[in-house]
Amino acid sequence: MKKDPIPLEIRFFRAVDAGDVNLVEELLQKGVPINQKDPLGNSALIRATDHEKRDLVLFLLSRGANINHRNLVGETALYRAVFRGNIDLVKLLVEKGAETKIKNAEGLSPMALADERGEEGIQIYLESIKK
User: Fold this and answer.
1) Domain extents in the chain
2) Would you tell me which CATH number, out of the four given (3.50.50.60, 2.40.50.180, 2.40.70.10, 1.25.40.20), belongs to the domain 8-128?
3) Which residues in 1-131 belong to E strands, given as ranges?
4) What tens digit of pLDDT does each residue of 58-112 get?
5) Beta-carbon neighbour count of residue 103 at 10 Å?
6) pTM for the whole thing?
């Protein structure tokens, strides 16, 4: 049997970007770490969030993905959900334990990003959960 010339990590991130839960699960079983990082420091969870793949986000969280992992510029999955303006993913990540006060390398928190991008619904939600 011929070995696949594409490294598992590359196949993994392609599957993540496509939202292919079955292939992601298969590649995890073959040994790709759940918190594998791409060259920009993005985890699968950050990329799944950035591509708005809700089912995959849920799957990765159920398998123990680090919800507060930060990429090379300090962004978390929550930060990317705010950037995309996806309030459903914002709520999901917060409900699953995402830290709302982590700032990126430029010093922007998810709340500050929501303000900067005019995401009023997300701002209202994040304000409502402040303790």
Assistant:
1) 8-128
2) 1.25.40.20
3) none
4) 999 999 999 999 999 999 999 999 999 999 999 999 999 999 999 999 999 999 9
5) 17
6) 0.93
